[in-house]
Amino acid sequence: MGTEHDHHHDHHSHDDHDHSEPPADVALRVKALETLLTRRGYVAAEALDAVVDMFETKVGPRNGARVVARAWTDPAYRQRLLETPTAAIAEFGFINRQGEHMRVVENTPQVHNVVVCTLCSCYPWPVLGLPPVWYKSSAYRSRVVIEPRAVLAEFGLLLPNDVEVRVWDSTAELRYMVLPERPIGTEGMPEDALTSLVTRDSMIGTGVAHAPGQASTR
Ligand code: FE
After folding, report:
1. CA of 86 relative to ligand 1 center, distance in Å
2. Mapped to the 3 state alphabet, what secondary structure does 52-73 carry?
3. pTM assigned to the model
4. pLDDT per position as a tens digit, 178-204
């Protein structure tokens, strides 16, 4: 925690861009508190890491997975999600405290969507939780725009040439989430079971939803 702050983009000079990370002084104070608490033995560093991991891999992405599974099983909800995404997501009680708007982009057999924030790491927190470290890396942010197919291949996602890849650049005001394709062989599967097939990466677009029986790790 507190080691991968990459929100100093002095080369950008986009001062009007409201970055999603806390200001540098807040990050410093958090780091100071963490150090103090750990040194005094009040908390274990591993316990803090476990909390961060929980938000990165469990709490956040599970919210998004519920949204996706509902869209797969309820055509009216899917339509609301695509047309009025901020409100449709709020139906679950996942409210955006920062007030930015959501846009949901739908994968189809012809189009694969992938999300990035080229400036920093704007990310749909209410549905996906904390961004993974690679999402904030300058390599991902710069390369996915220029050579999306190559980057996706490195994630193990090999797309046929006739599939169009669309890259969406998030900002503080507008954040994207991918609605992945429903895996084949899931006809009749209940909504609850479907959520376990929806991975975090499938909602960023660097992955696809798992097939039934496939282990879901990210
Ligand atoms: Fe950003």
Report:
1. 18
2. HHHHHHHHHHHHHHHHHHHHHH
3. 0.76
4. 999 999 999 999 999 999 999 999 999
